[in-house]
Amino acid sequence: MTEIKEAQASVDRWIARFEEGYWPPLVNLARLTEEVGELAREMNHRFGAKKKRDDEPQGDLALELGDVLFVLIAIANEQGIDLDDALTKVLGKYEARDSDRWRAAESGPAAQPGSTRDGDTN
Amino acid sequence: MTEIKEAQASVDRWIARFEEGYWPPLVNLARLTEEVGELAREMNHRFGAKKKRDDEPQGDLALELGDVLFVLIAIANEQGIDLDDALTKVLGKYEARDSDRWRAAESGPAAQPGSTRDGDTN
Amino acid sequence: MTEIKEAQASVDRWIARFEEGYWPPLVNLARLTEEVGELAREMNHRFGAKKKRDDEPQGDLALELGDVLFVLIAIANEQGIDLDDALTKVLGKYEARDSDRWRAAESGPAAQPGSTRDGDTN
Amino acid sequence: MTEIKEAQASVDRWIARFEEGYWPPLVNLARLTEEVGELAREMNHRFGAKKKRDDEPQGDLALELGDVLFVLIAIANEQGIDLDDALTKVLGKYEARDSDRWRAAESGPAAQPGSTRDGDTN
User: How far is residue C121 CA from its own chain's centroid?
Assistant: First the structure.
């Protein structure tokens, strides 16, 4: 039951153990690009048309998402940004901007995290 | 003071309001690629060599990070993945793998989130 | 009927007109990430589930691909890399590595560029 | 001395050998994201702060650029887009849009492809 703020502190403690500290912004960004690429590879293997080679392990989608989250937190930490606050602002922005772009669900009981409400046709 | 689990539930509630529900995995991935691109544009404007055009607003790095986090959570939700657990596993993986790749900080008081410990030369 | 080498020279001439010259590698990489993000937005609008907002023009997929190609050439030029040679090597690498990953087409007349041989189910 | 059009035809011939033919657009896009990620990893190893692990080969920047170019051509082919024409249009667009964003080089002899005109400080 980790708070977002605690997750940022955990990443900070991990990085604090090393002399180099945080990487510069564009180095962090390059690493984010790399980790998103690994996520793309894993998702394409599961949901796309690309065949896995026999010597490639199945991988772990959760770990790839975790890697991306780690770098995202590192970028936020290095820049002194509160991700909890950022996410709140983003949800507010979507509220204002996108509320008329989608058709409202007719019923709409609050779904549980992880539930998939559409037929995945990919 | 939002927990990661609560953040996943907030995104889920937001998406539950719309008929379409979650997008398929490769559509979500394409949107993640798009949002990482917008983050790259913002970071390049601040830390890179690219000049802003006069008609481009300064933007908000925190919002761009929040947009990426939102899509990351949507991917995790759609796949039923617990991001809190994923981040814990990733920190454990780094612990095992990278502990000898960095020189340990000699002192090493736990730094605060947002602190930058290296000279950013980008 | 431009040769790849001529395309690299055209990009070089364009960049030579400006004092700044080529950007450093990680700045170029950030711009590549940005342009791939714009391509992702355009492709998601056409082939994904994301709805366009009314104030977003339809855009031009060819121009987005051209933007990515431009940055790719800039990275190659800045690093002194011959893309024609690189593509030849890559085709040779695929030849060696992937030849048994796909089922060979039974007939297999040389298709024309731009032809689509699969049912696009995205 | 390959023309861009010939490069598109070469990729097409390679893909024509296999039953599957071109992947759908969002699958191609996911693969582009993956290949850009591998390029980012290689560039970060060379120009960023990330340390290579001993078990990671030095890699080949040219091959990574070639991989990205291959997927870019595959996307263009699948969509019936002429990349030579697209690059010409992009150069024209930059001509119109960016000509006043940069300071013109005072002298400005046409530089050779691959030359680097700035001190790379990354």
Answer: 22
Q: How far is Cα D1 from Cα D12, in angstroms, rounded to an integer?
A: 18
Determine the Cα–Cα distance for residues B57 and B59; give it in Å rounded to an integer. Answer: 5
Tokens 């590879």, located at residue: A41
Verify whether the Cβ–Cβ distance D118 to C90 is below 8 Å.
no
Q: Is pLDDT at C27 greater than 70 in this prediction?
A: yes
Residue A19: CB atoms within 10 A of its CB come to 13
C104 φ, ψ (degrees, to nearest 5):
-65, 145
Whether A121 and B21 lie within 8 Å, measured CB to CB = no
Mutant choice from C44, C51, C64, C70 vs B, greatest count of B C-beta within 10 A: C44
For residue A78, the Cα-to-chain-centroid distance in whole angstroms is 17
Q: Which two tokens stand for residue D7?
A: 């490069």
> Domains (ranges, CATH) in chain D?
4-98 (1.10.287.1080)
Output the six-digit token pair for C34: 């940005």
On chain A, the residues whose CB falls within 8 A of the CB of C101 are 51, 53
Instruction: Look up residue C57 and give its amino acid.
Output: P
> Looking at residues C32-39, what average pLDDT do you find?
98
**Residue A53 to residues A81, C91, C97, C99, D64, Cα–Cα distance (Å):** 40, 18, 10, 11, 19
Mean pLDDT of C90-116: 59
pLDDT, tens only, D26-78 = 999 999 999 999 999 999 999 997 556 556 565 599 999 999 999 999 999 99
pLDDT score of B101: 56
Q: At what angle do helices C61-79 and D83-98 cross, to 10 degrees?
A: 80
Whole-angstrom distance, CA of residue C30 vs CA of residue D36 = 11
Q: How far is A21 from chain C (nearest CA, A)?
A: 19
Residues in chain A: 122
Q: What is the DSSP string of chain C?
A: --BHHHHHHHHHHHHHTBTT-SPPHHHHHHHHHHHHHHHHHHHHHHHSSPPPPTTS----HHHHHHHHHHHHHHHHHHHT--HHHHHHHHHHHHHHHHTTTSPBPSS-PPPPTT---S----
ipTM, two decimals, is 0.80
Task: Specify whether the CB–CB gap between B16 and A117 falls below 8 A.
Answer: yes
